[in-house]
Structures are given as C-alpha cells and as structure tokens.
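FAQ: What does a ligand-bound record look like?

Like this one, built around S-adenosylmethionine:
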Amino acid sequence: MVLSENTLPIFNGNWEYQWAPYDLPTYQAVLEQLQPDDVVLDIGAGDLRLARQMAGIVRKVYSIEINPEILAQGLEKDEPLPGNLITICGDAQTMDFPPEITIGVLLMRHCTHFTEYANKLKDIGCQRIITNARWRMSVETVDLLAPRIKFEQVKIGSYACWCGAVGFIQGPLELLTPENNAIIHEVIDCPNCLHHKSKN
Ligand SMILES: C[S@@+](CC[C@H](N)C(=O)[O-])C[C@H]1O[C@@H](n2cnc3c(N)ncnc32)[C@H](O)[C@@H]1O
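The answer part, i.e. the structure of the complex:
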C-alpha cells in the first residue's frame, strides 16, 4: 500500500501518529498479565509485533492502528496472521470498541487520551487496561473499576489520575508505612485536572 502525503493530511506533523516499537522487557511485562480467556483490544498496534505474540496467549486480539502504512508493514510479514487476530485500520478515539473486550492494551508513552480510552473500555464492561501512558517508562495494569478518591484525601504517597498525571504527594512521614508506600492512589481532581478545568 502506498500513500502520498496528500492522502494522509491527518499525519502531517502529528507526533501522536508516529510509530516506534518498545523494548522486549516492555512487551514481556504486557504478555505476563494476559490470561488464556482474555479478549484484548490493542490500541495503537503499530506493526502488530506485540499483537501477534498476544494472539498466541489469549482467545482473541483486536488491533486498532490509525496509520495504514505501519499496519500494512505488519500485515506483509512472512508469517501468516494468526486466525484470532483481527486488525482494524482506524481511529481508536472515534470508533466503537467491540463489546467482548476483557482487557485493553495501550502502549503509547506519549498518549494524551488515556481518559477517553479508559472511559470507553469501562463503558463496554472491560475492567483492566495495561499501559505505559501514565508512568511512561514502566507498564502498569489499571483496574478501571477501582474506587478513585479525591486528590485532597491522599495524605501522603504516590498517585495516578486518569488525566495521565502521576506523582508523589508529600505529607507527614509517620503516615508513610510500607503498606501505604506500596499503594498507588487512583485520584480524581488532581492539580493537572483542575489546571485544565480553570483554563476552559
Ligand atoms: C509508540 S507506537 C507503539 C506501537 C505498538 N503499541 C507497539 O508497542 O509496538 C504508537 C502507535 O499508536 C498509533 N496511534 C496513535 N493514535 C492512535 C489512534 N487514535 N488510533 C489508532 N492508533 C493510534 C500510532 O500510529 C503508532 O503506530
């Protein structure tokens, strides 16, 4: 498939649609979280290198990739596409997600749409997403049904917000028990959210 720049104005200068693979430990961290019964939604699948591996572990993989050139590279590889891997060339932000998804995979460190994807997955009853979109250099599995508390309720410790912000809230050191230190508090209304609300 050959596409000229004129046929793809959407990609001009949009760094979110750039493809770059991750390293093997990153992919391994994803593969270790999958169960045989899972139906995966791979958001921003690139050249399908992870999708092909996931298809060997789980029941089904849906891979969405917006860039047809990258997807074509993945489809043109020598090994045939696994029968349980469904590829979709489209925009994950606007397309409907298949209702049977049990787990989302979002390997896109620069992603600024975590909230949208988390909400869309939750709306179809999906409970988990594996992603590096928030902590960037490491992969986490987010429980989309876990209670989220107000930012101001965290006395001390690490936090992560669906807007993508993460950090450490300072407070009384005596409250930083090993148990508390091991928790990442899922919050709403973090300073980043409030900053953006105040601008709109
Ligand atoms: C950093 S690459 C990672 C590719 C793949 N997840 C991997 O780990 O090998 C991110 C990919 O997401 C795709 N992408 C970005 N926004 C997208 C969207 N809204 N819908 C579908 N794909 C998207 C890009 O085109 C790019 O190929």
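Follow-up question: can I read anything off the structure? Yes, for example: Residues 16-17, 19-22, 44-46, 49-50, 64-67, 70, 91-93, 107-108 surround S-adenosylmethionine (CB under 6 Å).
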